[in-house]
Amino acid sequence: MARLYVLANVATAWCLALVLLAAFAAQFLSGEPPCPLCLMQRIAMMMAALGPLSVLVASARGALSSREIAVGASIAILASLLGACIATRQVLLHILPGDPGFGAPMLGYHLYTWCLVVFVCTILAAALQLCGLTWFQGQAQGAPAIARVTALLLGLVIVGNILSVIAEAGFAWHLPDNPTRYLLF
């Protein structure tokens, strides 16, 4: 049962990391710096990723317990609720017919729409983990290699996003609504 929780958190972490990497691709390959709402969604997604990351770290230590899973799922749910509110706000800003939205669409939808979908799926995944805690038997085990690789990838993506936000914001307290350049450089 513990391995199932590890794999569920690996899948959640990979989904969050892939969306953050897609945001990186849009930012650097397409030359589209994120708007302030996009930055807040990224921050919320990084906070949501800390939930699965905490479960993976606990599993690597061999101390995976129902408490660790509950804390990780709670972190993911709270951060995803915040992110879903921010993403919903941005979707509603661009909901009128004829509004081109912010940034280029990826696979038919804008990144903020994908973020909303990912936040809702993260909430559902974490809620399912909490529902399954009744059947969890706390078994101490080491994390499989994929859990360690996932934790490393997620850590690198989080650090990269933090550096990207610092590069865009510089030392300013106010970002323009439609950024066109990096304020640090």
Automatic annotation (TrEMBL):
Subcellular location: Membrane
One Gene Ontology term, aspect cellular component: membrane
SUPFAM superfamilies associated with the record: DsbB-like
Record-linked InterPro entries: DiS_bond_form_DsbB/BdbC (IPR003752), DsbB-like_sf (IPR023380)
Leader sequence segment: none
One Gene Ontology molecular-function label: protein-disulfide reductase activity
Keyword Ubl conjugation: no
UniProt keyword annotation of Aminoacyl-tRNA synthetase present: no
Keyword terms: Membrane, Transmembrane, Transmembrane helix
GO process terms (BP): protein folding
Segments crossing the lipid bilayer: 41-58, 70-91, 111-137, 149-175
The protein's name in its UniProt record: Disulfide bond formation protein B
Membrane topology category: Multi-pass membrane protein
